[in-house]
Amino acid sequence: MVGSVALDSIATPSGKRENILGGSATYLSLAAGYFSPVNLVSVVGSDFPGSHLELLKERNIDLKGLIIKEKGKTFRWQGYYEDDFNEAHTVSTELNVFENFKPEIPQEYRDCDYLFLANIDPDLQREVLHQVKKAKFIVCDTMNYWITQKPESLKKVLAEVDAFMINESELRQFSGESNLLKAVKKVMGLGSDIVVVKRGDSGAAMFTGNSIFSLSAYPLEIIVDPTGAGDSFGGGFIGYVCRQDRIEEKVLRKAMVYGSAIASFNVGGFGTERLKDLKFEEIEKRYQEFKELTGF
Amino acid sequence: MVGSVALDSIATPSGKRENILGGSATYLSLAAGYFSPVNLVSVVGSDFPGSHLELLKERNIDLKGLIIKEKGKTFRWQGYYEDDFNEAHTVSTELNVFENFKPEIPQEYRDCDYLFLANIDPDLQREVLHQVKKAKFIVCDTMNYWITQKPESLKKVLAEVDAFMINESELRQFSGESNLLKAVKKVMGLGSDIVVVKRGDSGAAMFTGNSIFSLSAYPLEIIVDPTGAGDSFGGGFIGYVCRQDRIEEKVLRKAMVYGSAIASFNVGGFGTERLKDLKFEEIEKRYQEFKELTGF
C-alpha cells in the first residue's frame, strides 16, 4: 500500500474528533490486514503517536516502509460533513512531511505480487511502478484534484495498472461522460482491464472487458463518519484477492463484497475507530447478509 | 390498474415525439400484460386514437373500465429531459377529461385479487379502495404533487394498502428523512407492510418488516426516454405476483427483477414504443442477465 497516513480532525452530524488516525493508506492497510499481511509505504512526522504505530503493527501491517521524519509534522486534514454525507468539506489541509514525499519502496517489498496505489500524485504513482516491476495485480485510485491538475500523468499510470478504482462522480469528471457505461468504456480504453466504480449509497460496480458486476450498498440507518469508506473498501478488495491469489472473476466479485462489508462497518465510527475492534467473524456475517440482501 | 391514460409530447437528447401513447395506467397495463390479464380503469377523450385501443386490447388488457368521453379531450402532458435524465421538466399539462375523473370500478372487476393504484389524487385512490374490497394485494404509487397537496389523504390510503411504491426522492420528501432506512421505517409506520423504493440508476429496493432486498439497475449505455420507467417497473412487479398468485418474499423478489427488466427495455424507446414489440423471451433473457449482473 502506497499512500497517506494522516491525523484527521473530523466533524459530522454525530459529533467530532481531533487528530485521529487517518489517511488513505491507513484505511487500506487496516482493511486488507483482515486477509493478508500488508507492507505499508508512507511518511509521518515525529508527532505521530506511538500508539498508532502499535495498532498498525498488531494488525498484520509491516512498517519498514513507513518513514518517520524526526523533524517533521504528520500530514493533517480537517473537514466536516453535512446531514446528507454527500461531500467532504475541507476546512484545512497541512501537507507537512507529505509535501516532499517520494515513495522509496524497501528492497524486500519490491517483489510483491499485489500493489495498491492509493490516491497520491500520479507522478509519484509512476515512480512506484518503476520500483515494483513484478506485481501481478496493481490497483490504483485517484481523486478530483489529480484529475484536474495532472490528467496526462494519470493516464500514463492507467496504462500500467490492472484495475482502476474511482468514485462515480470523479469517473464522470475524468471521462466527461454522464452515462456510467460510456464513462467506463472511455476510461477502460486508457489501459486498465478492470474498472471498479465506488457509488456511495448506490453500492459499487466492477467492469471487465466482458462482464459487469453490480453490488448494492448495505443499507445503514446510522452513518457516523464516511471518511475512509472508499479506502476501506479498496483495502478489503485487494486484501481478499491477495489472500485467494487468483485473479479471476469469481474471486474479484467476492472481493467487492468483502470490501463493501468492511466499508459498511467503517462508517459506523469516527475515522478508524470501528476498524480497531472489528472482528473477522463480523465481516463474514455481513458477507452473508449481502447474500440475503441481493439474492433472488 | 387505476390511473391515467394520456397522450404525451416528449423531447429528450435522442429526439422528440408528439401525442404518443402514455399515462401511468398505460405503462402499468402493458407491462403487467406480459404476465396476467389486466383490467384497466381510466378515462380518455374522443380524440384518443382507435389504434391505441387496439394495441391495448391485443395485449391482455380489458377496456370495460376505460371510459371514452365523447365530448372530451384526452389528458395531455408535454415535457422534456436533459442529458442526465434526472428530472422530467414539464412544459404543459392539460388534464382535460382527467379533471373530473371519478373512478367507477365495473361490477365484474370488483372481486379482483390484485389492485394497483397508480399515481392519482389520493382521494380518488380511497374511492377505489371503497369499491374493491376483496383484493388480497394492493399496491399504490404517488408523486410529489400529492405529497405536498394532500399528505393526510395519502396517509389514509397507505393505511389500507399492502405495498407502497415510491421514488427515492419523493420518499425523502414525504418522510422528511434523508437516510433511506429511516425514511422507509417512518413510511412503513403508516400502515403498508411493504415499501418498494424506485432508485433510478441505483436500482430498486424492497423493504418488508424483517427483510431488505436491494437490486441494482441494469446498466444501459443509451436511454432514449425515461418516461414510464417507474410505471413499467410497477406493472411488471404486480403482473408477476398476480401470475404466481403467492404473496411471499421469494415471489416478490423475482417480481422486482421482472419489473426492472421491463423498465430497462422501456427506456430504450420513446413512450411505449419499445413495449409494443418487446417479446416475453427478451424479458426472460434479461432476467438471467440480472442474475449474472448481481450474483457472487
Unreliable residue stretches of chain A: none
**Strand line-up of the largest beta sheet of chain A:** 9-10-11-12-13-14
Oligomer: homodimer
Largest interface: A-B, 37 and 37 residues
Distance between the termini of chain A: 36 Å
- SSE-based structural type of chain A: alpha/beta
What key attributes describe this structure?
six-stranded mixed β-sheet, 296 residues, alpha/beta, 14 strands
Summed up:
The structure is a homodimer of 296-residue chains. The first copy, chain A, contains 11 helices and 14 strands.
Please explain how this structure is put together.
- The structure is a homodimer of 296-residue chains.
- Chain A has 296 residues and is of the alpha/beta class.
- Helices cover 38% and strands 23% of the residues of chain A.
- In chain A, the strands form 4 sheets. In chain A, strands 9-10-11-12-13-14 form a 6-stranded mixed beta sheet, sandwiched between helices. A 4-stranded mixed beta sheet of chain A has the order 2-1-7-8.
- In chain A, β9, α3 and β10 form a beta-alpha-beta unit.
- In chain A, α1 packs parallel to α8, α3 packs parallel to α5 and α6 crosses α7.
- The model of chain A has no long low-confidence stretch (mean pLDDT 96).
